[in-house]
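F.,

This is the one I mentioned.
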């Protein structure tokens, strides 16, 4: 799916995204946030923040001395997230940006951690290394990345899902990826992997550190 189509689709879905996808995904995202273990005073970036639940959790974790930044391609998702942050009392602590994770608008080595949950698999395969390279660029030395993503395996559920994605890419806009392989190839050292299942599809939750 091209970026313009993705932007339009997520703008349309933003108001009700939590009803059909957010609840199921949030459990795995929560595991990823726990593993990322954002600390008081850290600077953390989330790419593809969606409806903003993770940004709230990250802001709570880094405290008043920390900084949380979010980037998403959808104006609709940004509006939903702005409302959520305002209700949570964190609107002034989070820097929200409308943008593409393949071209992050930040200086190098500015973040202690990057988080991406059910985001990487939305990009076309050739773009995934570009996104991860950008994540690595904006991380400080020894910075870490947390990724939650559908994982590619030889299972029947994955093959069916990939078939559906090929037939209806505008509706099923992501597909399982070789999570740990693409992360390692981008210059990260994986330190922790947890495997789970969602609707019979494998999910991998990975923490990795930037290699110097």
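My design for it:
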């Amino acid at each position: 799916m091209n970026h313009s189509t993705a932007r339009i689709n997520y703008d349309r879905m933003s108001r009700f995204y939590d009803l059909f996808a957010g609840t199921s995904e949030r459990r795995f995202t929560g595991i990823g946030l726990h593993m990322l273990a954002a600390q008081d005073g850290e600077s953390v970036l989330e790419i593809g923040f969606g409806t903003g639940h993770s940004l709230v959790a990250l802001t709570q974790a880094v405290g008043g001395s920390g900084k949380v930044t979010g980037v998403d391609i959808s104006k609709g998702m940004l509006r939903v997230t702005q409302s959520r942050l305002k209700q949570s009392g964190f609107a002034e602590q989070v820097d929200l940006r409308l943008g593409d994770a393949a071209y992050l608008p930040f200086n190098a080595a500015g973040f202690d951690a990057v988080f991406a949950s059910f985001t990487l698999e939305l990009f076309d395969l050739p773009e995934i290394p570009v996104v991860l390279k950008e994540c690595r660029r904006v991380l400080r030395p020894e910075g870490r990345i947390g990724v939650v993503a559908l994982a590619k395996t030889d299972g029947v559920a994955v093959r069916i899902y990939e078939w559906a994605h090929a037939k209806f890419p505008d509706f099923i806009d992501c597909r399982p990826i070789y999570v740990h392989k693409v992360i390692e190839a981008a210059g990260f050292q994986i330190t922790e992997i947890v495997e789970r299942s969602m609707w019979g599809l494998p999910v991998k939750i990975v923490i990795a550190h930037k290699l110097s």
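Strands lie at 43-47, 67-72, 94-98, 111-117, 139-150, 188-198, 201-210.

Talk soon.
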